[in-house]
Amino acid sequence: MGEEVKEQEVSMETVAMILGVILLALVPLAGRHMTHLVASALLLSLAATSFNLLFGYTGLLSFGHALFWGVGGYTVAVMMARFGFGYLESVAAALAMSAIMGAAIGFLCVRHTRIYFAILTLAFGQMFYGIAVKWDFLGGSDGIYGLPRPLNSLELYYYVVLASVLVSLYILRVITRSSLGLSFMAVRDNAFRAEFLGIGVRATRLKSFIISATFTGLAGALWVLLETAIGPESMFWTHSAEFVFVTLLGGPRVFLGPVVGGFIYAFLADVAMSVTEFWLFVIGAVLIGIVLFFPYGVLGYLLKRLRG
Amino acid sequence: MVTRREFLGMLGGGIVGLAVGGALGYTLAPKGPSPEEMAGKLPGVPSEPLKIGGMWFLTGKFGTYGDMAKKALQLAVDEINASGGILGRKVEITLKDEADRQNVLQNIRKMVEEEKAEFLIGIDSSGDVLKLAPVVENDLHVVTVITHAATPKLTACNKLHYVFRISMYEEPIDVAAAKLVAEKFPDVKKVASIGPDYAYGYDSWAIFSTNLKKLLPGVEMAEPMYSKLGTEDFSSYIDKMLAYEPDLVFSSLWGGDAATFVKQAVSKGLFDRVKYYLNPMLGATDTLKAIGDGNVPTKAQVWGSGRYWFLYPPHDVWPLNKTFVSKFKSRYGEYPPYVSATSYTAVYALKAAIERAYVMKGAWPGQDDVVAAMEGLAVAGPMGPVAMREDHQGVYSVFWGRLTKGAPNYPHPILTDIQVFDFGEVFPAPGQTAVKCQ
Fold first, then answer.
1. Could you read off the pLDDT of A85-132 as tens digits, one per residue?
2. Can you give the residue range of the structural domain that contains B72?
3. Which of A99, B329, B385, B419 could form a disulfide with A214 if both were Cys (CB 3.0 to 4.6 A apart)?
4. B59 and A280 in contact by Cβ < 8 A?
5. What ipTM score was computed for the predicted complex, to two decimals?
6. Which residues of A touch B200 (CB under 8 A)?
7. Contact residues of B toward A, CB < 8 A
8. CATH code at B337?
């Protein structure tokens, strides 16, 4: 498996900055649909990057991460629709709720690794999906809908999303470079050796889990305000699989890999569906192609090529 | 033996013949105006094609719905374009897949804002329609005709402006079910039930049981049972029913579940022990195909309903149904299910509303003009005349029919002994529903 290469990080940050600026400029020019599309691509990217903190950096494959997207989303929806809070308090509550849920579920899951961890997270994801379908308070299978959109404007809200995602990515980037981030990778590469170096393996995994859950929850919370609605399908395992797919698409061993993957996925789905009703086939074919020919993901492959 | 020269000669003769014949045919054939020629002929009508955006489940396990809706949509659009389009504008369609659940609103927005769909039709899922409606009302502002999603909440709990539902929803069918029992099977003492484990199943039972209690107060009812969508083994549910010994089983299962349940109930002898089985979603051709003639119970009476039945109104009484069914059958090789009839009617409702609004305004109508024209509109569909009520719910009569073998005339079981309930008997007043609004 490849590892982080230090000199690459500077240019990647530059790429991220340029990308951010281009996106900012794009909004007024490209129309409302593009604004909506880029906003959801940004949120998908944030969720996938958070997922990848656990997967690419800590070596734990969660197959139930949409659960935290749903926790964030439902918290906002419930706070606003049931209790009449504003969106700022609601998003703050969503962050807290995602962190708490991340701690509780993470505590139970990080005792296991590999396939056992994946199955356990999948089980928790499906359990909460089931709860959302059944519980009237959460709107049952209909979900919660008709929420007001912040600032009453898609364009203005887009900037909120953009700023939140950029700040979150920056925080996640700082974490991955900190001693905490290095301990994630140490645990990933050799848990046994990390233990001997004085790193609490389980505690480290739990920290990664909580941070990952919190930022995934933030993505879900912001997404609900974009969509003005949420339903149980946002916690279904296929949505969790989307995070995995997006991460593999972009490259799990590069920080911005999931972001690139998120954008490719969102645009691919958007274009494929307009061209053919067999759009899922197109996406499936792309996944097979990526796994076979780009084992490090699109961005991972490009960086490898650039480096020679 | 034909030499090369002879062959070339014949080829040349053939080409000349084709050219002469073609030219003659061209000049002699009766010519109606094509949409292109009509464009711009009516004052105030734009010349570019009119685009309608459709969204249904096109892929996945509910993909049949979208497929059948799309086929009917194509049929309606081809008919309309063959006779000059809508006020001379050729009709085009663009489709999006509702199976992309995470991006329903984004895809709808794309059709409206990027692909320039002027009107929307479709939507299978109740959850999707409830989240879509506020966005259409507050943000997109395009006339949207719902063709399938059946939650009473859409029209009963919302004040709609741009959103209309042409299709029958679940409440009148369940109210009619209670009436059917009270009128035809007053000997019923004990009722058991099963439904899918989500809002539709709960609502359906709530509506049926509340109404039945009013009509037959003495009836005893078992605790309702709910099964997950896609359940493959219903034996535990059937065993519980057998133990309860009901006279009547009410089932709101739909699609594959409805068929699986009937087949397993047949093999476990449920239909030898109960007298009546009612399913408001049985009258769907895909379900009937899956049940098959071999599983039509002979002892118990099995009754079904739906949002449209291809043999009702009878073809001699309502020729439009006959034309629709025969066109659909000859083009696609099967009988049209309800999603086809409602989607087909939705296009004609839009056409009628646009034309009416054009006459009233004297220019191509805006969205609000079309809304005004839709309100109070009556349109003829394969299911009979459909009237658009002030709550934006299309109303037409409800039917219930008894499951019978289709052979030798039909490839699947059919509903016969059709009982009709006029809309006035079974539709709650606008704004009324037995279901709790959010």
1. 989 999 999 999 999 999 999 999 888 888 898 899 999 999 999 999
2. 50-168+317-395
3. A99
4. yes
5. 0.79
6. 141
7. 58-59, 66, 94-97, 99-103, 105-107, 109-110, 113-115, 126-128, 130-131, 133-135, 139, 151, 153, 197-200, 202, 438
8. 3.40.50.2300
